[in-house]
Structure formats: structure tokens, C-alpha cells
Amino acid sequence: MTRTWHEHEKGSNMTMNTAQNTILAKQTNKGGLLGGSRDLFHFLKKNQSTPPLQTSTEDLLKSAYKMLEQAEHNLQERDQRINALENILTTDELTRLTNRRGFYASFKGELDRTNRANNQGGILIMIDLDHFKTINDTFGHLAGDEALKTVGAFLLSTIRDMDIAARIGGDEFILLFSNTSIAQAMKRIKTLGTELNNLSFEWEGKTIKLHASLGLKEYKQSDSIDGIIEDADKRMYQDKKSKAQTRH
Asked: Distance between the two ends of the chain, CA-based, in angstroms?
């Protein structure tokens, strides 16, 4: 039996609704609005009135999926731009370590992990360079920058994927050892302190040796970020004071 134009248009409406539902399902799986989806549905509705000899249902679906692929590509590019921007905002430009903003965000996530299901905590290590001002005053600020970069590269080389190395300002650094205890990590911490205090770099024909003071704080459930950092900071200054007294 020959279908009337009204019957064909009704069938096309059902087909377009099916295509639209399929696209919306994919859009939902992507977790948000896809760029170009509004234009896609406008295109489908516009072509509903096109006679069947000019535009087939298959052509409509091909065009729809082509626009969907482009929308998905646009979403991927957007996510890449967002990730790049987040990296810029949370990375210290000089040392390539995590910066203060990034550290606090990561540490909050780490404490949330610790507070879930009685998970093991970890260790925060506060690091402060000794006599950094002397390096700046004697050799200049570019030499000071080189000292910071030397320490940053060393810290990055010592951490595991689950750990965090951050520069939180000036010559202050923080290491965060996740999911461990001082008893478990003591050998690693001693090696870290020894190697850190044997770092050096060449500057204008001279070897500049670096030294640092460390303060440790084991954190666990219910500890606060500020309290952990304050305790580690106090212990770091105790280490610095102890070394100064030993030299005199």
C-alpha cells in the first residue's frame, strides 16, 4: 500500500525522536551539555519537512552522528584546556613542584581519605633551607633560584606516585608521604635528610653546598591541616636551632 505524505512524516517524527533519544543518552553518559547539540536538533527538525526524495532517514542519522562526534571532540578539547589551566594554577613555576594552593587542595583530599573507613594516615615533612639568605646576598637572586630548583628536582626524584612534593613559599618545602607511619618510613626519612644536606650546585665556577632543616609530623584521623603543619613547623625550627647550637 502506498504511504501518504502524512504517514511518512509521522514515521520520520518517530525516527527523529529515536535519534534524539539516542544522542541524549550519549550526552548524559558524557556528564553534561555537549557543544553543538542544540544545532544538531535544530538541523533534524528543519529537515523533517523535507520531502522523502530529498532527504532520507539514513541521511538524517548520518548527519546527526557526525555532529555528535564533533560535539564530543569539542568536549575533549575543553577538558584538555581545563586540565592545562588547573596545572598552571597548582604548579610552582620555578621548581615545578606543587604550589601552596595545590598542596592545600591535595592535603584536604588526603585527610578525607584518612578519615574514611579507618584508613592509615601518613607523614608530613616540613623542609626549610639553611642560610638561604646568605646565598642570595653573596651570589645573587639567580643563584638563589638555582638553589630552589636543585632542591625541587631532588624532592621530585624521591617521592612515590602517591606522595606530594610542594614549595609553599620562599625556601620552604613540604613532603607528604601518604598511607605510611614514621616507624615504617624511618629509614627512608633518614636517607632523605642525609641526601638533602649533601646537595650542591655549580655557580660561576664555584660549588655551593646546600643544607636544610626538617620537621616531621605523623597525621591520622581527625587531625586538622593547620595543626599538622604548625607541629611540623615547630619541629623544623627545633632542628634548625639544634644545628646552630652545635656549631657554636
From this structure: 108
Beta-carbon contacts of 56 under 8 Å, excluding residues fewer than 6 positions away, are none
| Cα 12 from Cα 17, distance rounded (Å) | 8
Burial letters 23-59, b for 16+ CB under 10 A, else e = beeebeeeeeebebbeebbeebeebeeeeeeebebee
How many beta carbons lie within 10 A of that of residue 4, not counting itself? 9
Q: pLDDT value at position 41?
A: 52
Q: What is the rounded CA–CA span in Å between residue 90 and residue 79?
A: 16
Q: What is the pLDDT of residues 170-179, one digit of tens each?
A: 999 999 999 9
Is the entire prediction scored with pTM above 0.85? no
Q: Is 87 helix (H, G, I), strand (E, B) or coil?
A: helix
Residue 77 CB coordination number (10 Å): 11
How far is Cα 46 from Cα 180, in angstroms, rounded to an integer? 62
User: Would you say 239 and 215 are in contact if contact means Cβ atoms under 8 Å apart?
Assistant: yes
CA gap 195, 232 in Å, rounded: 20
Measured torsion, CA atoms of residues 112, 166, 160, 181, in degrees rounded to the nearest 10: -60
Q: Dihedral of the CA atoms 103, 214, 95, 147 (nearest 10)?
A: 160
